[in-house]
Amino acid sequence: MSKNRTPDDEPQEAAEAQAPKIDLSEEELVALCKAHVCAKCAVMAEAEDVKLRALADNENFKRRIQRETDEVRRYATESVLADLLPVLDNLALAIEHAGSDPACKNLVMGVEMTRKIFLDTLKKHGLECVGACGEAFDPGVHEAIGTVCQPDKEEGCVAQVAQAGYVLKGRVIRPAKVLVNKGQEA
After folding, report:
1. Which residues are in coiled coils (predicted)?
2. First-to-last CA distance in the chain?
């Protein structure tokens, strides 16, 4: 016997000498351990549950961040476009007030062309004008500022537009201020 050996070591050494040598890779050893020991272990099951919940929370977080990022990108120009709306209003007022004065004909034509180019450019960025006369009143895109009685128009439709409204990719930037037809007076 060597000096570090104890009598208790002899049965263990005898068992090791009789046991066949098994050569397993690291992955095989882990899989074997999980299959025979850890499958019945409550701590392992709880750890697996915690891991799955953490993975699910992480995926939900990624999806939410992606959705928020997409929305920020989609509506990033909203404040700039909203600041440009008074320019469109002033161009429309210039056209309206010039009327049919022959002296202003060329100036009005230039303002109309400028307004059209401006609207086309804004449309490329997703801005659309809402609130035309004759369309049904929709409180989602219209703001009623009063009522009028026009027998030639349907009840509940837009009779007159006081200020155009605008929608950016489905989101109302400014509702159209309209007068709604209430039908025939009693």
Report:
1. 44-78
2. 121
Compute CA distances 110 → 95, 113, 180, whole Å: 10, 5, 32
pTM for this entry: 0.60
Q: Which structural domain range is residue 162 located in?
A: 78-181
Number of structural domains, the chain? 2
Q: What is the rounded distance in angstroms from the CA atom of residue 128 to the CA atom of residue 135?
A: 15
pLDDT in tens, 81-106: 889 999 999 998 888 887 777 788 88
Burial class (CB in 10 A: 0-12, 13-18, 19+), 51: exposed
Which residues are CB-contacts of 125 (< 8 A; sequence separation ≥ 6)?
Answer: 77, 81, 168
Q: Which residues pair with 117 in a beta bridge?
A: none
C-beta separation of 25 from 19 below 8 A = no
Beta bridge partners of residue 178, listed in sequence order:
144, 161
